[in-house]
Amino acid sequence: MKQLRNNVIRAGLDALYFTGAHHVLRPILAGVGTIFMLHHVRPAGAAAFQPNRHLEITPHFLHAVLAHVRAHGIDIVTLDEARRRLREQDFARRFACFTFDDGYRDNRDHALPVMRAFDAPFTVYVASDFADGCGRLWWIALERVLARAERIETEIAGDVLRLDAIDAAAKQAAFDRIHGALRRLPDDDAVRAAVAALCVRHGVDDAAIARELCLNWSELRAFARDPLVTIGAHTVSHCNLARESDAEALREMRDSRTRIEHELQRPATHLAYPYGDRAAAAAREFTFARDLGFATAVTTRPGMIFAENAAHMMALPRLSLNGNYQTERFLAVLTSGAATAMWNGFRRVDAA
Question: What is the pTM of this model?
Fold first, then answer.
């Protein structure tokens, strides 16, 4: 199903590109700015089974994105500068912000050198449990379980799943099935428990993944001293805030910021909602972020930034640099705003 969706999206992007519609639509739909969303930046892997491939791009493609942005005369700015421009309605030049979720070590090792080459500032949103080395990156743990298994049997919310995982196609189908079931569980504790049980059964150390992939506090302190780097908050445990009680959602947002500011001795005034779609961040979470005093908060809802977003600083959309679409022709369409406008039914703001 996901492959079908990817193929449909590719066909749509190609249609916009080869008809030249994105050139015509850019002045209307590109807005005043863009907030790019990234996760991993690292060399491409060779494995046939990479279900989380959409969460990574190569350093070469990041370089192409930055070159594309600069070639269009767009200013690459911090989130603080983007906020100022929105509040003051200063749109003499379009702007772009680059944001990275979760706090992966490859952001330092592979993204930072590319960003330095363009003197481009960026924000990295850190989940404090990941920096502590005790968080659970369950989607990566699930990938590792399926990479080594030939068959999976598990029970999720009372449903027993018996799935083949004999080859890459079967593994992908099993991943999609289990991932969907996990996202329907009532809370993140249930998700982590279900994946932990699979890890025990298949010999995967899910407790070690955060330490392997994410920057720890000592590394973050050095990273944050770079003048291009801003560290933002991404909750404590990378939970789906919408499934938490009021008190727990507030604690996750507040304590993440407090921990970052204590460890790094610098303000953390920008927030990214984990998962960030409508099922994970909506009106309640936007209100909490405002009440906690964040300067901006970003979602994963697709969209360009328009002047009207100034009234919705806790619900800013982003443009995902998706690893499934790493071509310069797709980039030209995406940055025109045409694709996200069609996705949003041509609404300029989606902040409900």
Answer: 0.95
